[in-house]
Specification:
- The complex is a heterotrimer of chains A (289), B (363) and C (276).
- Chain A is globular.
- In chain A, α3 crosses α10 and α8 crosses α10.
- Helices cover 74% and strands 0% of the residues of chain A.
- Chain B is an alpha/beta fold.
- Chain B has two domains: 174 residues, D-Maltodextrin-Binding Protein, domain 2 (3-Layer(aba) Sandwich); 161 residues, Periplasmic binding protein-like II (D-Maltodextrin-Binding Protein, domain 2).
- In chain B, strands 1, 2, 3, 4, 5, 6, 7, 8, 9, 10, 11 and 12 form a twelve-stranded mixed beta sheet that branches.
- In chain B, β2, α2 and β3 form a beta-alpha-beta unit.
- The termini of chain B are far apart.
- With 276 residues, chain C is mainly alpha-helical.
- Chain C folds into two domains: 36 residues; 223 residues, MetI-like (MetI-like fold, Orthogonal Bundle), CATH 1.10.3720.10.
- Helices cover 77% and strands 0% of the residues of chain C.
- Chain C has 13 helices and no strands.
- Chain C is globular, with a radius of gyration of 23 Å.
- Classes of the chains: A mainly alpha (289), B alpha/beta (363), C mainly alpha (276).
- The interface between A and C is large, with 110 and 115 residues.
């Protein structure tokens, strides 16, 4: 069981045990939960939405038009998307290696995959700046070959890669485990090429899991703050992401702008969430329990 | 699904409970304490009559306050009244500190980097007296905006104009998030408009071009003034637009870099004010007002000078003309029209800064 | 990075090695090297220096605050998480989907966003300001704000983990207990709870790790006030600002080590399974 546990993303109800006794406890429990989550989750986020739209859609759009707001959103979107795509590839490869291969230290490597969940994001950012920063030989070399990491968009992608590494891996692993290698071997003995085997035999059953994990990683990347504030250099329009932008606007007291950008991010997240869960459900359903 | 052993649960619950108990006790026991964000200073003996004072300051003067000024004040107050004082301090970016005070941080004294940050507290109704109505206009320290350079000035930076050179990388904070950064842009604007940037005097269009040329050389735009200097110290950029006192403070702790005094630059003045709402709630107005007066005495002004600040008390300033060179053309924010004009004209959306930034991105 | 994904384990050994090395190199470069580099840097700066700076700047207070927040999050979200898992998995009622969605919401929200949202509700001029003024409570720029933020970001973990376990376990044991005449509470205490221990532990560990690492919400909500609202992560940031570089990296290492230890502890608890 991996820490990202994409399987547990959805909680379909198992058939409820029939209760012949009428008990108030279930309703009390449900009430408590609704009140708790209502106060802690829905009320603040709802207030945010209301605040952003309080002066009408016109004011909202005007707030979005604040300097560097749109650029921050665009930067956030493309860096998160690039990260997600990279993760789809590297995550699947990593899952493959962990499931199908036996090698010394395999358990250690598997534990390593969970490392991003253990390390605070701020620390992750510090590590990257430290390793790839301009004062290090690695950093200066990268700079000369035109691939600056610290204080550049590439650094953002790198930080995001670190943060979202486990998602695809942990989503694909269980599905891969249940996949019978017999089909691949059959394809191989029948002379199927590598690409064919991958495309026709492996990918279809894995696709929902890969897609689900990718979307989760994407959603996570959109929200990232701690590592980016250290790594990116925060240049408005160039390396200033949405979260850091929001932080700056809040610090400057410009709540209208901050909430407007928050609203966009929130809507995005709310759209992505059900999609990711549906995919995970599909992935979960596709493997035999 | 295989069952975990009961040992495991005990293993987890045990340490967690122990941790909880330990941290609870430590937390209760050590409620006030030091932090990189500030400390609690107290006189060595806990006499029955103890006063507290909370100082909310911006990041830079931290060492000046912690190491010299506050201990001096504790001695002074003890001498004068026989009371012990506990001074709690908080240091962070000026804008952030201002926001924190408005948001509920009960600082008795606000010592910030620039006037607008104090004005924000005034607008929130927490400062109700005319804080500028004293011999020094409400200010406590001064400095000038300068370009900081690498040791030995390898790129030969002489003046603001050199910041437009294509072989020079510049570092400066973002004025939209850093109040302190506004000083920097105001310095560029002022120097240029007054004819010291090789563009025609009083020609705003040329000044706009000049500023955008500088901004085009900016590699990193940190969200705070201190972050910006730290980035420079990490090796980014050839020039950092910063304040003289930042460089001098850094040199005090052994950082190796220097600065150039340009021909024309802005006089930075840092305000200090008693926060009425808080002192009235805490009942320590006398201590707070005494502190604000104390920091303007020549003795304390000399302490500030040690940490790179230009004194605002004239007589001390006379003593230190060698240390603090006066530029050819030293102008103030009043010369640019005062803060209200500067904040709107330069830093409002579509103001001078935004247009220069826009133009810089197209270079 | 090798592009082959489906070498048959019997026919293309060279491809296998290439893929394996590629993946290991990628993981090493991304995960391991930076961590080791940072540890080396702290050693370079001097452990003594780091210790001295940390002692001077109140690192331990900040750390205890983080730990205390994490424990609170574990306790609160543990109890409510188990309740939520049971309600969501075992019950059927109108609004179940809605509750499920609400539980998952924190995962999608940026921490800075929720900090701002809480300020709009509990801060000066906020929605609930009259209520707060009445009770004299301070939420923003104070400890309760930190608690709120930390609890919020860790809401989903226990619920999901325990829910997953509940779903896999099925209801056979509970039903058996019911037919034997056990009350709801007794069934829960004697049957359900022992069974979900594993999921609960998992959830608790995730909660702890996430809490310790929380930064954005705590920065916005707490305002990073000296000795009052600085947590370990805020300390790292503030120490760097105040030029306590050794303390900053030192605390970063401490946090990383602490959470990694939690992870390792969790792995040790897990019965060794053939898959991983």
């Amino acid at each position: 069981m991996g820490l990202s546990s994409s399987h547990a993303a959805t909680l379909p109800a198992s058939p409820a045990p029939s209760r012949s006794r009428v008990s108030p406890w279930p309703w009390l429990a449900r009430g408590l939960l609704f009140a708790w989550l209502g106060l802690l989750v829905v009320l603040p986020l709802g207030t945010l939405v209301v605040y952003a739209l309080a002066d009408g859609p016109g004011a909202f759009l005007e707030a979005l038009g604040a300097p560097y707001a749109a650029e921050a959103l665009v930067l956030t979107l493309w860096t998160a998307a690039l990260t997600a795509v990279l993760n789809a590839v590297t995550g699947t490869a990593t899952a493959w290696v962990l499931v199908r291969y036996r090698f010394p230290g395999r358990n250690l490597v598997s534990g390593l995959v969970d490392l991003p969940f253990a390390i605070p994001t701020l620390v992750a950012g510090l590590m990257i700046v430290f390793l790839f920063g301009p004062q290090t030989p690695l950093g200066t070399w990268l700079d000369t070959v035109g691939l600056p990491i610290a204080f550049a968009p590439l650094g953002i992608v790198l930080a995001l890669q670190f943060i979202t590494l486990p998602f695809v891996v942990r989503a694909v692993e269980p599905v891969l485990m249940d996949l019978d290698p017999a089909e691949e071997e059959a394809a191989a003995t029948l002379g199927a090429g590598l690409l064919f085997t991958f495309w026709r035999v492996l990918l279809p059953p894995l696709l929902p899991a890969i897609a689900g994990g990718t979307l989760q990683g994407f959603a996570r990347a959109l929200a990232e703050f701690g590592s980016i504030v250290v790594v990116s250099g925060n240049i408005p329009g160039r390396t200033l992401t949405a979260s850091v932008f929001i932080f700056g606007e809040v610090e400057a007291g410009r709540n209208e702008v901050a909430t407007a950008v928050c609203l966009v991010l929130l809507v995005l997240a709310l759209l992505l969430q059900p999609a990711a869960r549906a995919l995970n459900r599909l992935a979960g359903a596709s493997h035999v329990e | 699904m295989p069952q975990p052993s009961p040992f495991a649960s005990i293993l987890l619950i045990g340490p967690v409970t122990a941790l909880a108990a330990a941290s609870l006790s430590v937390l209760i026991a050590g409620c006030t304490g030091a932090s990189p964000l500030g400390e609690a200073h107290s006189s060595p003996d806990q006499a029955p009559l103890q006063r507290t004072l909370t100082l909310g300051a911006y990041a830079t003067p931290r060492d000046a306050y912690d190491k010299e000024i506050i201990p001096a004040f504790l001695a002074y107050w003890k001498d004068k009244t026989g009371q012990e004082v506990v001074v709690e301090t908080s240091y962070q970016g000026s804008g952030g500190q201002s926001r924190a005070i408005v948001g509920g941080f009960e600082a008795d004294i606000a010592a910030l980097s620039l006037e607008p940050d104090i004005q924000r507290i005034v607008h929130a109704g927490l400062i109700t007296h005319d804080w500028k109505d004293d011999a020094w206009g409400g200010m406590v320290t001064a400095s000038i905006a300068v370009p900081a350079v690498r040791p030995g000035n390898p790129k030969g930076i002489q003046d603001w104009g050199d910041l437009t050179r294509t072989d020079v990388d510049v570092v400066t904070p973002n004025p939209r998030t850093s109040g302190g950064a506004m000083w920097n842009i105001a310095a560029l604007y002022g120097a240029s408009m007054r004819g010291y940037a090789e563009v025609p005097r009083d020609d705003e269009l040329s000044t706009l071009t000049f500023i955008s040329q500088v901004l085009a050389r900016v590699r990193i735009m940190d969200k705070g003034a201190r972050e910006s200097v730290l980035t420079f110290e990490q090796g980014v950029g050839d020039v950092a637009i910063t304040y003289e006192n930042e460089v001098l403070t850094a040199k005090l702790i052994g950082k190796q870099y220097d600065y150039v005094v340009p021909r024309s630059t802005i006089l930075i003045v840092n305000p200090i004010a008693v926060v009425d709402a808080n002192v009235d709630a805490h009942g320590n107005r006398d201590v707070a007002e005494a502190f604000v007066d104390f920091v303007r005495t020549p003795e304390v002004q000399r302490m500030y000078a040690k940490y790179g600040y230009r004194p605002i008390v004239g007589e001390v300033g006379q003593e230190l003309t060698e240390r603090f060179v006066t530029p050819e053309d030293l102008f103030t924010i009043e010369d640019l029209g005062g803060w209200p004009r500067v904040t709107t004209h330069l830093f409002d959306p579509d103001g001078v800064f935004d247009r220069a930034m826009e133009s810089a991105r197209r270079r | 990075m090798s592009s082959s994904k489906a070498p048959s384990r019997y026919d293309w050994p060279l491809r296998r090695v290439a893929l394996l090395l590629g993946v290991l190199a990628w993981l090493g470069l991304l995960l391991v090297v930076p961590l080791i580099a940072m540890a080396w840097h702290v050693l370079d700066l001097g452990l003594g220096q780091a210790w001295h700076e940390m002692a001077e700047s109140g690192a331990s207070q900040a750390l205890w605050r983080s730990v205390w927040l994490a424990v609170l999050a574990v306790v609160v979200n543990g109890a409510l998480g188990v309740l939520a898992a049971i309600v969501l998995v075992r019950h059927r009622f109108p609004g179940r989907r809605l509750l499920d969605w609400m539980v998952d919401l924190p995962l999608a929200v940026s921490p800075v966003m929720i900090g701002l949202a809480y300020i709009l509700v509990f801060g000066r001029g906020g929605l609930l300001e009259p209520l707060l003024l009445g009770t004299g409570w301070k939420v923003t720029f104070a400890w309760p704000g930190l608690v709120l933020g930390t609890v919020f970001v860790t809401i989903p973990f226990t619920t999901r983990e325990v829910g997953h376990v509940l779903r896999e376990l099925g209801t056979t044991e509970e039903q058996a207990a019911a037919t034997l005449g056990a009350s709801t509470w007794k069934t829960f205490w004697k049957v359900t709870l022992p069974n979900i221990r594993h999921g609960l532990t998992y959830g608790a560990t995730l909660t702890m790790a996430r809490s310790l690492g929380e930064f954005g919400a705590v920065m916005v909500l707490g305002g990073a006030i000296a000795g009052k609202t600085d947590t370990a992560t805020v300390f790292i940031y503030a120490a760097m600002e105040s030029r306590f570089e050794a303390a900053s990296y030192g605390m970063a290492l401490v946090l990383a080590a602490l959470t990694m230890a939690l992870l390792a502890f969790l792995k040790a608890l897990q019965p060794s399974s053939p898959e991983v």
